[in-house]
Amino acid sequence: MDFRTLAASQDALAGISADALLLVVAGDKLPAGFDKTLAALAADAVKLGDFDFKGGRALTLHRPAGVKATRLVLAAAGKGSLKAARAALNAALGQLKGRGAAHAAVAFVGFDAGIEALAEQAVQATAESVYVYRHTKPSAPAAGALSKLSLVASKDEAKAAKAGLARGEAISAGIELARECANRPGNCATPTFLAEQVKALGKDHGIKVEVLDQKAVEKLGMGSFLAVAKGSDEPLRFIVARYEGAAKAVAPVVLVGKGITFDSGGISLKPGAEMDEMKFDMGGAASVLGTLRAVAELKPKLNLVVVIAACENMPSGRAVKPGDVVTSMSGQTIEILNTDAEGRLILCDALTYVERFKPAVVVDVATLTGACVIALGGVRSGMYASDDELAAALSAAGDAALDPCWRLPLDEDYDEGLKSNFADMANVGSRAGGSITAAKFLQRYASKYRWGHLDIAGTAWKGGAAKGATGRPVGLLTHFVLSQAK
Ligand code: BES
Ligand code: MN
Ligand code: ZN
User: Fold this and answer.
1) What is the pLDDT of residues 292-345, one digit of tens each?
2) Which residues line ion ligand 3, judged by CB < 5 Å?
3) Which of 195, 243, 346, 407 could disulfide-link 304, Cβ–Cβ 3.0 to 4.6 Å?
4) Is 2 helix (H, G, I), strand (E, B) or coil?
5) Nearest 5 degrees, angle CA 87-CA 88-CA 92?
6) Would you tell me the crossing angle of helices 115-130 and 82-94 to the nearest 10 degrees?
7) pLDDT tens for residues 212-263?
8) Is the confidence at residue 474, as pLDDT, over 90?
9) Yes or no: domain 175-483 corresponds to CATH 3.10.150.10
10) pLDDT bracket for residue 200 (50, 70, 90)
């Protein structure tokens, strides 16, 4: 896909040459001084009852008189917010789906949101509209002919527009990588596969990558991670990638991803319905990998460490059993009451491991609890933070990226349920407040640094007819990492 800016003023849009001119409009009318030909066409469409300026409406006109572009797509955003702009973009691009237009030019009219953020969303919407999963379904039809997007910007806007396009491209590449990894089935996207993906990314971008196998993990004393992995014949991988964009002495941002490539529940076996969706249980790993990809392209002046703990959670004669007690890398012992609460068991050792980087901040990302799906659905990711400033930064990043999260509490009282008579803690509490008790468990391993936690169980993938990975929260994480550059 080719993304670029196109210099034109709003009174001369009819002269733009493209296969489709997308006119994305906020407000209830076109402003005074707007291109006369386009204004007349829009007014006529409204008069005929085919279009209005209410949010969500989109209309395609073919070879309209006086317009150089072959198609004119009108899309109404209603409000001038970034979110409304994205919805209108999606509607406009929906008009081109499966069609012959290769080059689309997009012009935004009347938005409060600045051109930089609009440009970023234009790229993301376009990239999303053409992504098709084909690795195990090569017969899947193409999304259409779209291969080039030009963003109309005035002279004054050009610099910001270019910056927005670049950020949009980087994030889109990250989202696509995350979606592709997560969409691949469990027999394909194994821990070994994830390690190969990170290595390939490292090679392309000069990022140092270290992959630890079972022996190395044993040596580190990661008894909790090992307990989860040992029920599977698929070998585990502990993956560490280091992007160095600042001096060595600068404390890094650390991202930790849950990489359960299939979660059967283990001996605490899950019910059969929708168990296939547990191939997406490496969505946290996929998203930190996607973020690394975006960061590698944008090259901010900071250091970033990405860590992925990857294994399968399977039942077998060698699998960990309810009641087993294991010793984590931190030395704290854990009574595993439910082998299906495995995410926290692999993450706790990763959280201990990353202490060695003396991080500025650590954020872990995990499809951690069904309870979070119940609490927040598929709209916002659950967010936890050890301090208000970090919570604000994660919130702001999610809003700016249209990849929102919502802070949940970490009161001491929620820790009660993790008491065990046989170990320092149990791996599950009561069912009530399940996302919070999982976070409280992780917090016991994250006391040495500023720590954030994203529970993306509801946002990493969609079920039903649209089943597939979303690539979330690559947008949030990329914005967050960029915000941490000094
Ligand atoms: N991967 C699941 C969480 C999950 C469930 C994500 C459904 C998306 C949809 C996680 O490993 C898990 O099984 N969690 C258990 C924890 C429980 C046993 C305390 C859960 O949420 O049921
Ligand atoms: Mn589980
Ligand atoms: Zn899981």
Assistant:
1) 999 999 999 999 999 999 999 999 999 999 999 999 999 999 999 999 999 999
2) 260, 263, 281, 343
3) 243
4) strand
5) 120
6) 30
7) 999 999 999 999 999 999 999 999 999 999 999 999 999 999 999 999 999 9
8) yes
9) no
10) very high
Do the Cβ atoms of 131 and 179 come closer than 8 Å? yes
Strand order in the sheet with 253-263: 208-212, 237-244, 303-313, 253-263, 361-366, 451-455, 381-385, 405-407
Beta bridge partners of 461: 469
Q: Is the CB of 264 under 6 A from ligand 1?
A: no
| Element (DSSP H or E) covering residue 302 | none
Where in the chain do CATH 3.40.630.10 domains reside? 175-483
The pTM for the full model equals 0.98
Across the chain, what does the average pLDDT equal?
98
Tens-place pLDDT, residues 393-407: 999 999 999 999 999
Among all ligands shown, which has an atom nearest to the Cα of 369? 1
Instruction: Please answer whether residues 64 and 41 qualify as being in contact, where contact means their C-beta atoms are separated by less than 8 angstroms.
Output: yes
Dihedral sign, Cα of residue 392, residue 341, residue 199, residue 128 = negative
CA of 341 to the centre of ligand 1 (A): 6
Strands of 301-396, DSSP E: 303-313, 325-327, 333-335, 361-366, 381-385
Nearest atom, ligand 1, residue 265 CA = 13
Closest ligand to residue 266's CA: 2
Q: Where in the chain is the domain with CATH 3.40.220.10?
A: 2-153
What does the pLDDT read at residue 55? 87
Give the separation between CA 292 and CA 298, rounded to whole angstroms. 10
> What secondary structure does DSSP assign to 176-212, as a single string?
HHHHHHHHS-TTTS-HHHHHHHHHHHHHHHT-EEEEE
Catalytic residue chosen out of the listed positions 68, 83, 230, 270: 270
C-beta of 349 in contact with ligand 1 (< 6 A):
no
Q: Is 344 a catalytic residue?
A: yes
Residue 312 structure tokens: 């399968």
> In 3D, which of 221, 414, 417 has the Cα closest to residue 338?
417
Higher pLDDT, 9 or 343: 343
Superfamily of domain 2-153: Leucine Aminopeptidase, subunit E, domain 1 (3.40.220.10)
Tell me if residue 270 is catalytic: yes
376 lines ligand 1 (CB under 6 A): no
Residue 408 reports pLDDT greater than 90: yes
| Confidence band of 431 (pLDDT split at 50, 70, 90) | confident
Rounded to whole angstroms, the maximal C-alpha distance in the chain is 80
**338: Cβ below 6 Å to ligand 1?**
yes
